[in-house]
């Protein structure tokens, strides 16, 4: 499927960092949704480069909807979002095009596209491509919010600095998500957030960059979403998250800590709470057998340090075919965790909506047939 | 796509643990492949329950190919693999069907399928469904092996016991993969392997179970595989790996350790080695920008402890609608890491072959057109 | 997608005429459908070879459901249907395998699969593959029937013999569909049917075969199904119908007669009938702009004469590489129109259900959102 | 898949007739293709409204490539084509929006999109959407041409006027296709073409419109393309052709005339011609068993008369809910056959390229494996 994701609602992403425009086509949105353009703008705002902790390339990221939107509502046909590239300084890249930037896609893309790749600023591999994803994600988010679902992401860890974690119960997470709405820097602990900002600024001064872990939570997600094979909720979300540049690991619930737990410790016992079936602990992050169980979804995404650093690095010059020293120019982020948080939120929204549509289609059919003589036990 | 994975070669999985048969349809295999049935049998053997460290339900897992195979070769039409369920003792499950097993899919499946799920032995959620995946994976593996690709997985960590890790260079990994071929228990360090076996046996005695981490490596994978969006190699592999029951996290290269690394530490500098472009370190696990770069692919899969333990657990009885105590009967694995290793190998093979076909299709076209006037620089 | 069709409910077809079994995996059926196995058997019966007007190879076509079906209901996981091949006389084919049968797939399959094709009895190209399609189609049909949809097909034309045509209004078609239920030979006019049977028998005596046109109607199909691009209802149905062996043309409503009509003649004026919007004529066969409009769907499928005739034919011998004379052995149908009618019905059911699910998924979502403030005008 | 077609190369269509722009995203094009923009312009020119036989809405149809194209070559990432709508007079539609236009999608779209559809000028259902299809098709055409494939379409029949038909041999068709290249009006017989033009002009004067049949041929298509189920070449091409507005029937080779032929007449005997296997006749239009056989592909597409006529018609007013008279305003085509020919060519190119990629992917793999020990017999 390459640049298209989704079966019920399909997203087709296009564009290059230094091309004319980037954008996304969203197909399958039901007609009649009054788009929340304020939400879209707020989400786009979260992704924007700000202050000294981000790149100095500031893009307006003006979202234009050029199809599928009529009289303030979705029309049911493909909705196309276009974002023009305005603040382009390609000359910064001209000089380094033949010098492979370490841990960037320069070399792997060069082999893949046999020299025809658009190398300016990362081309189609650029983090800029996450802008249309955030715009599209805000539509998925709006739909989910109207169904009660809430999603948020904070920086769990930036190098050695660790934020407070999301709670285990829906109530705790609800409070935390509300708190995060107004944060300009996404941490649950403000002091920790300030320390992280200082760390990023210090990194920038060192001509270095820094990585970390994002923690996300989604609550009020209906139980029963996801498919046993091959589209478990974990599969769907990981598929999306691993296409965000710089993501190198994704885990759910207790994640890699499961390695240290015995079954007797790791199992989430069932219990009743106000007549509803819940689990006493939530090691599984709201997902059993690949299917949501109604508990908060918890997931972790590790983001590597931005590969664009200003220190001299060892490289190979494709033109001369020889080893060479590289010093990167251009405008780059010393850390992208704070900007990536809303991208992760967007991907989670896109993934959950896909699973929800899948489940609803079957339910709609069965309801029409009214042949459900046994019915649900729960 | 639910139970179907893949675009070039498609795998459709079906069956339930206690039904008549499980199986898989593989569509898109080129005609004329002389199947290596010995390799298939060896792979199936690795997955089988053996000794005291596995369940006492021993299945013959006799693979029958009922279509798409003619005169010892693939015929080009869908190849269907059938594995009958023989050693079925469903009565063990009759008693517990209404008591939700913690950390199993019982509850989430019950909500999803509204009471109509086949609850016997996990039904379609059962680990038994990985048997046809291993059979199918062995075909993908055979094709990749003929192209020079090698894949192997060992137990990196079982609770507090840690095995030696895969090396950073192709040469090191090649030796390690060769070593693993003859191991009945998949560790690189034999002593560590023995300790792990003892730990599993001890767990079994405690009516408990244990989890851990698998590390996989793939070498001689051509550079240039994967797509920037949304089908990065990481996305494809994670999608497949997260549909293996019990997998809760997947990471590539340095994985979650990236959180602790500055860009200056994490970047993999480029260098020349015998005229070939390589990276000096391999934090990125052979993948840059979602695309393979020719270095060894390294990935980690965390497997939670088997949820079926024999200790009494808190649960809810769907029939009475009340909380109740559950003691699981039946035959279960105290650990599945050693059996899961070949399942992970199979998924990796399926994923890499998919990405390879994707890339080859385009190349085949361009070669026919012979319009590649610029050509590759590398 | 090759042997898999459908996005909401997916059908994966496998098997060869003289292999061990043929079958189909149906994925995406909602859980809880009490399968109407009588309907399935009746549909299978309609497809069976009977009397002198069909092949003498009589197959039991015993349908076995080996997964996805539990306690008399669909379980929500892939439902697999298996039909064993029992009455196989492959030796009839051994002699002719290298002699290309005119208008069969022998040559094109040989090129496609480079000599590795299963040539026995048409292999995967055999009309036998329509047996699992009818079984699967009966499930789609059952669902549609419960929603009120009715579908039927009769022989519109067999050589120079022409049956009565389906009426233009829902009421007329309803009566005709009811009439067709009990027919052993699918014509609306019994006398015409008898003449057709005689013609087929005469053909058989002449060692020849005969073709014709099937006309199908579907009523009570909800308006609004289909997509403008690329999944118009016509696209979906034609896609399915053209994969039935021997189909060489598909048309809707007035079909190829549209060439003779001016716009003023061909347009279907809108009118009100008991408060409902209808069209006064139905040249468009219930489809406007690729979307159903609530009027009866009318479609025509031309079926070429069975290529297996017993007269000597010119051919090429692949073994010698020379021209040669071919006299076909084996057991073949002098006409397949009467057996193909239920296959066409099955494909229509599969196609309409797919479009219905597509539409329902969106509606279900929008209903949940209850944001449909404008609402439908009609 | 809705507005996306294709698996190897994917086309995602978007836009509305009176929106800001229409366009298409093409994903999966191999990198390094030097686009033939002249061919694209020539194809676009063929589709344009010209003279008195077409609508008076003249659109510049300026094609802008905004991504996936770098330094004169495809870059391997999604290629996006944008065509702005410039000559928009939506006020013509304001008045009729609530009056259903007969045989248009007004009513079916209204039900489908529940009143939220963009009704201006047909919206997403407009024939304007075929402009990006022609642009995309010209790229597919260019690739096929470089591989030797030639495709052309002429007006076989316009009401009672019938053109000369395509010949049965590759040589005859080759000459005819060459002849058609320079025609401003697509007929094989110039006199017949003039008569058709007069007929269209006469229709326009009568405020009426006229339909007809297009015949297409494709030669030098490699044998072996297409899949038995469900993606026969006929299925793929029909799927695409039936999404062109106004197409109501598609047939291959002798098409609906097969109904009048006995097997002994309809079968295409095999023979050798200069050492190559050919068929003596070509009733099957170059396709056996859904797979190309190397003979010319012949297909027929019936195009209904344009539903927009200037005569008063019976209709229903959605606003009042009452029957009403409708007189269509705006600028419309009295016939679209001459403009549709290049759209049909484009769809055929898209479909054949898809099938070719499918086949090449498998071949590329098997060649790499060099395990093809039996090899092709032919």
From TrEMBL, chains A, B, C, D:
Binding site for NADP(+): 47, 52
Cofactor: how bound: Reduced FMN (FMNH(2)).
This protein's pathway: Metabolic intermediate biosynthesis; chorismate biosynthesis; chorismate from D-erythrose 4-phosphate and phosphoenolpyruvate: step 7/7
Alphabetical list of SUPFAM superfamilies matching this protein: Chorismate synthase, AroC (SSF103263)
Cofactor: FMNH2
InterPro entries in alphabetical order: Chorismate_synth, Chorismate_synth_AroC_sf, Chorismate_synthase_CS
Residues annotated for FMN binding in this entry: 124-126, 289, 304-308, 331
Reaction(s) this enzyme catalyzes, per UniProt: 5-O-(1-carboxyvinyl)-3-phosphoshikimate = chorismate + phosphate
GO MF annotation: an example: chorismate synthase activity
Keywords: Amino-acid biosynthesis, Aromatic amino acid biosynthesis, FAD, Flavoprotein, FMN, Lyase, NADP
Pfam families hit by this protein: Chorismate_synt
Domain of life of the native organism: Bacteria
Function in brief: This reaction introduces a second double bond into the aromatic ring system.
Subunit details: Homotetramer.
Listed NCBIfam families: aroC, PRK05382.1
UniProt protein name: Chorismate synthase
Species of provenance: Massilicoli timonensis
Encoding gene (name): aroC
